[in-house]
Design goal:
globular, two-stranded antiparallel ribbon, 193 residues
């Protein structure tokens, strides 16, 4: 009987830690933000201690996979290892021959640590995505994947008289308005065909 109570208490404590970390992560992702000067600083080299590491280039698929993996692994209350990051990144790559191991993950983690987006937990080889890191990473991925990519793809299409159906969602209507405005901006800048 005592073993059952002890096991139940351990399980309840672990579930509480998981739920608290999940809610903390969710709170950080609710209103994500990235400033214009941060975008400039992101791709520049930095240092972790005395070690110089390269910048983070979100135009490279590997960095986007790492960023998505950091968001996914951020809910783990005990943090995550470079091996777990590598496994998650390999799972995202569509190519079967993509080689990404713990060594590459450790190097990429150093890049994110240098930008103060990830921290290494004391006394071990585990990492934690910081709250500011969650906000920055989610903002960058959201802007790239949900705003810029669809917007650029839709403005490249030759739909001069694009009609948005009445039953479309508010987001679809807002994208439609933005698409029209962006076509005008591109034409003014000489970017649109």
């Amino acid at each position: 009987m005592r073993t059952d109570v002890g096991q139940f208490t351990k399980t309840a404590t672990k579930l509480k830690e998981i739920l608290e970390r999940f809610l903390e992560t969710l709170c950080c992702l609710d209103r994500c933000f990235v400033s214009a000067d941060w975008l400039e600083k992101l791709s520049s080299p930095s240092k972790v201690g005395t070690t110089r590491v390269g910048g983070i280039d979100f135009n490279r698929p590997r960095m986007r996979w790492v960023a998505r993996a950091l968001l996914a692994l951020s809910v783990r209350p005990g943090g995550f290892t470079a091996s777990q990051l590598a496994q998650h990144v390999r799972g995202q790559s569509s190519g079967a021959d993509f080689q990404y191991g713990p060594r590459q993950a450790a190097y990429d983690l150093q890049k994110f640590r240098a930008k103060k987006l990830v921290s290494q937990r004391k006394g071990g080889r585990r990492y934690k995505t910081l709250p500011a890191g969650l906000k920055t990473i989610s903002a960058l991925l959201l802007l790239r994947d949900q705003v810029l990519a669809p917007l650029l793809a839709s403005t490249a299409e030759a739909h001069d008289n694009l009609v948005i159906p009445a039953e479309s969602t508010l987001l679809d209507r807002l994208y439609g308005e933005l698409r029209g405005t962006m076509r005008q901006v591109f034409c003014h800048l000489g970017l649109a065909a």
